[in-house]
User: What shape does this take?
Amino acid sequence: MIGLLSELRRLEIGLHHPGVRLDEARLRALLHADFREVGRSGRAYDLATVLRFLAEQGASAEGPPDVVHDRFTVRALGPASALLTYRSAHRLPDGTLTRHTLRSSVWLREAESWQLFYHQGTPAEVAW
Assistant: This one.
């Protein structure tokens, strides 16, 4: 389980990195063709919407947010599926953390790699 946690944690954190978020080919490799997300806003998104949003975010002057994460846990759901949970927040330029969120991701092993199939963010009340 430690190896699985390490691998999925690495992939999930990579999705917050500007180099990955702005690379459509890399995103398509990491996100399942049937990817769905429920954002912390409560809105539902599909793969095409997420790819478009990330491209627009990368083109903006602000760029993607600086995201910090902790408390990763993983639970195998089957031989080729796993649930990854963790907390995240956005770090402002002054170091303040905002937009605290509880996150859940369902990853599926497709061929030789893991792909994110479903992701949900829920606003968290407790600050770090």
